[in-house]
Design a protein that fits this description.
The chain has about 550 residues and is an alpha/beta fold. It folds into 2 domains: about 10-425, Rossmann fold (3-Layer(aba) Sandwich); about 440-535, GMP Synthetase, Chain A, domain 3 (2-Layer Sandwich), CATH 3.30.300. About 30% of the residues lie in helices and about 25% in strands. The chain is built from 16 helices and 25 strands. The longest helix has 18 residues, at about 40-60. About 50% of the residues are buried. It binds adenosine monophosphate. Adenosine monophosphate (AMP) binds next to strand 14, strand 19 and strand 20. Adenosine monophosphate binds near residues 232, 304, 325, 328 and 418.
Length: about 550
């Protein structure tokens, strides 16, 4: 028997309309190249989104055109998010930090028709435009007064196009599985692969994200997404914030400018933020050095890579900020798990609490998780067994966009193999121990590089740490700790290695330490183990460990 409830499609248009009717005067504050502090309301945003939909029609964009965005977090990018998807087209966010070959591959693979580009990235596109011949036009996200000189073919000015259109536009009633967004993985091997989000998947993700034990955001919050809108939709904050009616503070190109971020947090009353650990390192350093504070901030989501315990403790103990350690990926829209307490963990103290904080959380309702061994057998949720983490759910990618061969990650029907290795404890909390390919295999056993990095980050002389496996004649691989020292700190390898004593199993302790000026990062701000392994390809471990 069928239920007798209305079959109303789950559309981002409904989120936009709800926000427009219920939070019309809520503010969006943006830092842009042409205005250091632009302010307007949700109503202004959605009115311009309707004009933009008319622009797409005037330009002749196809009914399901992929429209590329090369843009920072700001109000114009918000307009693009809503207008592209709600007009039935597909918002293809592109990460400008990718290499030229990857950009060309992605733009051509997606068959983008138009690209909307921040003035700062115009030169970057000029270099690759000849290799993307199907692009019908480039629209620069600025006004006529700030329009740069450009050799891009058919280059247009965003504000000029908008000014020519009416804000009368009837959003189409789409089928809920219509594609809404496209984001490519920033995989380190092989070509990037496209995760194609639907209206339905994104709406359900938005509800999941807003829940109290996920991000727990409300109309009284002010959100500063430091995580870029050009990668996995700024972790869903643009839609979740619009749905619940938060104020938005959009930092534009200042994602890595600690002073600007701290100014925005204090001046605009930011209560919730989100970013990868590497963006928070300079912010915490800056706040400490200047004696400033983060008073309005009540919590921040940190994920994308493991958040060091020392960072969570610094946020909590010095600034009263709760870190919601979260796990997810491009293929999961991205939120899969978030670490908030439940009764069994709320009373933990000391080492048990420390260990618990390093968990990337429990599944966001709607997402199912399991860990399996090499034979695909499910492993127990005992917090000890670790295996390949698999995931399923309505906002998990079922297959990649336009792939010419089936992906191995989808080999088991109904499940997606994340490529992560994890444990799950009896309360459902996952602990990511590694990417499958980053696990260190020593004497047939696995060593977690993430756990070792976490310990190293607790040492006061360590600014950033990464651990990789180095070939060993007897043990197959042994861990090498690579460290960037805190400015002016004097620390020797020996002291750092001794620091591991009692904190991890003896045989996990790194064999050696290499000091470097900088650790390489990927386009999404994560430590690039691939580049690091390249840097240390010729490295030979000392005959006897530095221990
Ligand atoms: P991306 O698709 O670029 O967002 O990267 C997703 C990957 O980032 C995951 O598969 C994990 O390897 C890693 N990741 C995300 N969140 C965490 C976390 N909290 N701890 C450890 N690794 C994480």
């Amino acid at each position: 028997m069928q239920g007798l409830m209305m079959d109303v499609p789950l559309l981002l248009t409904a989120i936009m309309n709800h926000a427009d009717q219920n939070h019309p005067n809520q503010e969006i504050v943006s830092v842009t190249a042409d205005n250091p502090l632009h302010r307007y309301t949700f109503t202004d945003c959605f009115s311009r989104a309707r004009k933009l939909a008319n622009v797409f029609n005037t330009l002749g964009a196809g009914a399901d055109a992929r429209i590329g965005t090369f843009a920072w977090n700001d109000y114009r990018h918000m307009e693009l998010y809503f207008s592209i998807s709600c007009s039935g087209r597909i918002c293809h966010t592109i990460n400008p930090r990718l290499f030229a070959e990857q950009l060309i591959y992605i733009i051509n693979h997606a068959e983008d028709e138009f690209i909307f580009v921040d003035p700062m990235f115009v030169e970057l596109l000029e270099e690759i435009a000849a290799d993307c011949p199907q692009i019908k036009g480039y629209i620069v996200l600025t006004d006529a007064a700030n329009m740069p000189e450009s050799s891009l073919p058919n280059v247009m000015c965003y504000e000029t196009l908008l000014a020519a259109e009416s804000d009368a536009f009837e959003w189409p009633e789409l089928e809920e599985n219509t594609a809404a967004g496209l984001c490519y993985t920033s995989g380190t091997t092989g070509n990037p692969k496209g995760a194609l989000y639907s209206h339905r998947s994104t709406v359900l993700h938005t509800y999941g994200q807003a829940l109290p034990d996920t991000m727990g955001i409300s109309a009284l919050d002010c959100v500063l997404p430091i995580v870029p809108m050009f990668h996995v939709g700024a972790w869903g904050f643009p839609f979740a914030g619009a749905m619940v009616g938060t104020k938005f503070v959009m930092p534009g190109a200042s994602l890595s400018d600690p002073k600007m971020l701290v100014d925005l947090i204090n001046d605009e009353g930011v209560t919730i933020s989100a970013g990868v650990p590497t963006v928070w390192l300079p912010v915490l350093k800056y706040v400490k050095e200047t004696g400033r504070n983060l008073k309005p901030l009540r919590k921040t989501a940190i994920g994308g890579s493991a958040c060091p315990l020392s960072m969570m403790e610094e946020f909590r103990d010095l600034y009263g900020v709760q870190v919601v350690h979260a796990w997810g990926m491009t293929e999961t829209n991205p939120l899969g798990a978030a670490n908030n307490h439940k009764p069994a963990t709320a009373t933990l103290t000391g080492e048990a609490l420390e260990r618990h904080l390093q968990s990337a959380g429990r599944a966001v309702p709607g997402v199912q998780l399991k860990i399996v061994d090499d034979d695909g057998e499910e492993l127990p949720w005992d917090g000890v067994a670790f295996g390949a983490l698999k995931v399923r759910g309505p906002w998990v990618c079922a297959t990649y966009f336009n792939l010419d061969q089936p992906s191995e990650a989808h080999a088991e029907p109904g499940w997606f193999d994340t490529g992560d290795v994890a444990t799950i404890d009896a309360e459902g909390f996952i602990r990511i121990t590694d990417r499958t390919k980053d696990v260190i295999k020593s004497g047939g056993e696995w060593i977690s590089s993430i756990d070792l990095e976490n310990v190293a980050m607790g040492h006061s002389a360590v600014a950033e740490a990464a651990v990789i496996g180095i070939h060993h004649p007897k043990w197959q691989e042994r861990p090498l700790l690579v460290v960037v020292k805190v400015d002016g700190a004097a620390v020797e390898a020996r002291e750092l290695i001794d620091y591991f004593d009692g904190k991890v199993a003896k045989w996990w302790i790194p064999d050696d330490v290499a000091f470097v000026d900088e650790i390489p990062h990927t386009a999404t701000g994560k430590i690039s183990k691939l580049a690091l392994r390249g840097m240390f390809a010729e490295y030979v471990l000392p005959e006897t460990s530095a221990r």
